[in-house]
Amino acid sequence: MTALKAYLNSRKVQKVLSTRPGEEGFSLIELVVVIAVLSILAAVAIPAFNGIQNDARASAVKSGMANGIKECLVLQARGKEGTGNAGGLAFAKAEAFKGDFKGYDDFQKWDGNGESVKGCFGVKATPADGYEQALPNLFMAVKADGSILKACVEENYTKKSQWEDEGAKADFCW
């Protein structure tokens, strides 16, 4: 019997015996507070994540535009795809323009709106259906003098003078 008394008087057993039911676990208030904090964090993080995705889409398109124009230059320099307006062949053969750029439709030739752009060295990317509000139109061209014309503007901007008037919008993405 003394062994049983010694066991029942030990610290471990006394701790177990003195614990009241319901003292383990979290209270309802603690759980509600944790859920509220997680909800606030999610409300802040999801829009930020969408903005990052849109920036990544626009960056991928800009890279594809630049690579496509470089590819056109190489194809025409090799003399395999023609020059001038025949640069349309180079535009069609440029693999960089054929990528899958989610959020944007296929690239289109763009003449730079009178900015002396020849062949396939002017490119326009327009947002696909459903992305018009989130993504801008992107324009890139290599002018005859070798300078580069780039813009990131709303659909209703079509001339370089309008980009200069709205310089903040024109330079936003570049």
Compose a concise summary of this entry.
By secondary structure, the protein is an alpha+beta fold.
- Approximately how much helix is present in the residues? 40-55%
Q: Strand order within the widest sheet?
A: 1-2-3-4
Order of helices and strands: HHHHEEEEHH
Q: On the 0-100 scale, what is the average pLDDT?
A: 75
The count of domains is 1
* Tally of contiguous helical segments: 6
Instruction: Give the percentage of residues in beta strands.
Output: 5-15%
How far from one another are the termini? 87 Å
What is the alpha-carbon Rg in Å? 32 Å
Can you offer a commentary on this structure?
The protein is of the alpha+beta class and 174 residues long. The protein is built from 6 helices and 4 strands; from the N terminus they run H-H-H-H-E-E-E-E-H-H. The C terminus is likely disordered. The chain has a 4-stranded antiparallel β-sheet with strand order 1-2-3-4.
From the structure above, extract its key features.
single chain, 174 residues, alpha+beta, 4-stranded antiparallel β-sheet, 6 helices, 4 strands, 48% helix, rod-shaped, disordered C terminus
